[in-house]
Automatic annotation (TrEMBL):
UniProt lineage: Archaea, Methanobacteriati, Methanobacteriota, Thermococci, Thermococcales
One GO BP annotation of this record: alpha-amino acid metabolic process
Gene3D superfamilies hit by this protein: Aspartate Aminotransferase, domain 1 (3.90.1150.10), Type I PLP-dependent aspartate aminotransferase-like (Major domain) (3.40.640.10)
Protein name, per record: Aminotransferase
Lineage top rank: taxon: Archaea
GO molecular function terms attached to this record: pyridoxal phosphate binding; transaminase activity
Organism (species): Thermococcus paralvinellae
Family membership: Belongs to the class-I pyridoxal-phosphate-dependent aminotransferase family.
Subunit structure comment from the entry: Homodimer.
Cofactors required: pyridoxal 5'-phosphate
Amino acid sequence: MFSQRILDIDMSEVKRVVSLIKGGNVISFAGGVPSKELFPLKELREAFLEVGEIADVFQYGSTLGFEGLREELLKHLKESQEIHAKLEEIMITHGSQQGIDIIGRVLVDPGDIIVVEAPTYFVALNTFQVYEARFLQVGLDEEGLKTEELESLLRKGEKIKLVYTIPTFQNPSGVTMGEERRKHLVELAEDFDFIIVEDNPYGELRYSGSPVKAIKHFDKSGRVINLGTFSKIFVPGFRLAWLIASEELMEKLEVGKLTTDVCSNTVGQYVTWAFMRKGLLKKHIQRLIEFYRPKRDAMLEALDEFMPENVSWTKPDGGMFIWLTIDDNVDTKEMLEDAVKRGVAYVPGKVFYTLRGGENQMRLNFTFESVERIREGVKILAKLISIS
């Protein structure tokens, strides 16, 4: 009955995490969702009222998206990430996940090779897997994707179609790719004829350090596709995101979207446009930063205080995640059930690798729980690791 491509996708571990924490009073470091208490309900209500008498709000829209919202976005991205793009080069998508799916639909044939970071966002892996891609892994360090390792792989003759990267506050590691590596990656794309997919859901959630330019900023030959989303910086319920690509690529990417849903949520686009044109998005992002920064600091402090010496972790300047590694023969997948029984949940590291790795690692989210529960959860985890 089912297609082989669906049967090949294994989501069992993610389902297992959800089932283990469902309904219990578990301290959850497993998710990656914003705090609903920060949704700007008053401003949203006003924006709904403002656009509610415009008939086009309730009509089908352009496949590329509402022009007013795209114009506001381009102004915002020029200021925040130094992305310079034309109106014809930006498309509103139904969440950034749809952007990944459209890229797979338009650019990936069965057997094409996609290079991914090790570790990387597991749902992107699943999405590209639907299009029967093959994967190669390139490692990360504190400066992000090891572009020299990628260059070595390319010089051995590997012909790749895409590099998928989350360069800023990476999911799951939290690390950020340095500017020189961003430039190097673009140079490699030009020299070896591949496309870079730059996924940036978290880049504007910066709590420390200096901003970095988007990879798209360095793109002079149209080889970078930039993805972003409102889900982490505004509200996820509208399912609005964006995709920026050269006009040549966009011509086909637009067809890819047209054959999936015709257009994105028109009501949400108009409300978001009304919100942005008043300058409220920038203020809201700052509010998020001020709310999340103490949570990140609390988790880092608790890790320092409670974790045994055989444990290390990343120290992200922003985003939502910390990546923890146990320098021992410990399987975090096997340990999860015991952790949940003790009252804390995480995502095991193995799900973030397409080939190998992650058995002794885990992803910890710090944006969802309170400071007090973060400290308690880390303390529980530290005790469990000590006896494992």
